[in-house]
Specification:
- It is built from seven helices and five strands, in the order E-E-H-H-E-H-E-H-E-H-H-H.
- It has helices at residues 29-38, 52-57, 76-92, 115-122, 134-143, 147-151, 155-167; strands at 6-9, 12-14, 67-72, 97-105, 128-131.
- It has a three-stranded parallel beta sheet with strand order 3-4-5. A two-stranded antiparallel ribbon has the order 1-2.
- Helix 3 (76-92) runs parallel beside helix 4 (115-122).
- The longest helix is centred in the middle third of the chain and has 17 residues, at 76-92.
Length: 191
């Protein structure tokens, strides 16, 4: 597994695969667990990006989560999806910290619902907002570089860094002296 991961920086390794459009992919908790067990032991945080449909079809993917992040835009559909998925998350992983992140805020002046309406409709606070920056997105797409490589001081990059800091905070597990390993959607086996 280590040789298949792209080394993006000293602290970031990426393992990804493309999903076929013509067939569905069946994610299972057992398969994800096997993958996580194969990761090198010196990885402190593992973030899994799971499609919402896979989580709905197989909620057991969330059972061992310490942190779950739901990402949405400020659309009515996004608000409804977050409301439904958050209920599923609370039922499946009641002890997991739930984070709501709004992406591409300000992208669509028409069609975006007000933040207050989103919060009221989901009955959840919004933890983070990522502002949309069309110029930055276009520059990153045309150059093949990441947002931080293009403009590390942009509001969008600052918001992303704030999310990363929030997600990798370590806290002590109640009743122990061990620190948690915060993961995105699914945890690696604790040693």
């Amino acid at each position: 597994i280590a040789s298949a991961m792209a080394n993006e920086s000293e602290n970031l390794f990426v393992l990804s695969a493309e999903e076929p459009f013509d067939e569905s992919v069946n994610y299972t908790a057992a398969a994800c667990g096997t993958l996580l067990e194969a990761f090198p032991e010196d990885l402190h945080n593992v973030f899994l990006d799971l499609p919402a449909r896979s989580v709905v079809d197989n909620p057991s993917l969330l059972e061992h989560s310490q942190k779950i992040v739901l990402v949405s835009d400020l659309s009515l559909i996004g608000m409804r999806d977050v409301a439904r998925l958050s209920k599923l998350c609370r039922e499946t992983a009641p002890d997991a910290a739930l984070h709501i992140v709004l992406n591409r805020v300000g992208m669509a002046t028409k069609g975006e619902i007000p933040m207050a309406e989103f919060v009221k409709g989901t009955e959840l606070p919004v933890n983070h907002e990522i502002p949309f920056d069309a110029k930055l997105a276009a520059m990153a797409a045309s150059s093949g570089k990441t947002f931080p490589a293009i403009s590390g001081r942009s509001r969008t990059v600052k918001a992303m860094r704030k999310i990363a800091r929030d997600l990798v905070q370590r806290s002590v597990i109640p009743g122990t002296n061990r620190k948690t390993t915060n993961l995105f959607t699914l945890l690696r086996k604790q040693n």
